[in-house]
Amino acid sequence: MIGEGRPAWDAADFLRLGPGTIVGQLSHVTNRSGVDHLRHQLGSETRVHLLQPDDPHAMHIDATLCPLREGLALYNPERIDPVHLVGSPLEGWELVPAPTPEPRHSPPLYMTSPWVNMNLLVIDHEHIVVEAGDEKLQAVLVSLGLTPLPLPFRHVQALGGSFHCATLDLRRIRHAPVPAG
Question: Please, what is the average pLDDT of the chain?
C-alpha cells in the first residue's frame, strides 16, 4: 500500500455502475487521499463507494468485480464476500461468483493473477467480449442469458491486463428496452 502523503489513484481501481455511481478499492496505486481528491473533483452528483476486498496485493478492481449489466455482477469469490457488499451500491444486485480460472502454462502471467479472466468488455446488456480460452467463464455467461464474444487475448493478459484495461469508456448511452412483438 502506498502512503497518504500525496493523493494517488488509478482509474483501473474504479468502476462506473451508472450515472452518478462509482465503486472502487484501495490498492498499491490508490490511497484514501486519492479517493478524497476524486470525490472532491467529481462533486456531490457522483457517489464514490469503496469496497473492501480481501486482497493484500490489490492492483485493479477488474479481477475482483465485473458489472455485467444493471443489477447483475460477477465477483471473485476469493477476494470479496457478497455479505460485505451490504450497504454498497451493489446491494440488491444478483452477484454471481466467477469460476476459478483454469490453470495455464503459456503464456505465463508475469504481471497479473489468473483472475484476469474476469477483466471483460461489456458491450451492452447482452454481449460481452471474453478471452477465447476461458470456456468455463463463457458457460457462466451463457447460463445468465448473455452472449459471450470469444476473442484470443491470452498474450495481452500475460502483460498484465485484458479487455477492460485495453479500452476506454467515454460515454455509454442508455437505451430503453425494445418491447417484444
Answer: 85
One-letter amino acid of 40:
H
Coil vs helix vs strand at 11: helix
Question: How far apart, in whole angstroms, are the C-alpha atoms of residue 173 and residue 55?
Answer: 33
Q: Catalytic residue among 55, 62, 134, 165, which?
A: 165
pTM of the prediction?
A: 0.83
The answer to whether residue 66 is catalytic is no
Residue of 13, 55, 60, 62 marked catalytic: 60
User: Catalytic residue at 105?
Assistant: no
> Does 86 have pLDDT greater than 60?
yes
Over the range 89-122, which residues count as b (16 or more CB within 10 Å of their CB) and which as e?
Answer: bbeebebbebbebeeeeeeebeebbebbbbbbbb
For 55, other C-beta atoms within 10 Å of its C-beta total: 19
Euclidean distance between CA atoms 25 and 77, whole angstroms: 16
Burial class (CB in 10 A: 0-12, 13-18, 19+), 68: buried
Alpha-carbon distance values, 105 to 151, 154, 157, 174 (Å): 19, 11, 13, 40
Residue 92: CB partners within 8 Å, gap ≥ 6?
71
**Could you confirm whether 165 is annotated as catalytic?**
yes
Angle at 168 between CA 63 and CA 121, to 5 degrees: 45
Quick one: pLDDT band at residue 164, thresholds 50, 70, 90? low
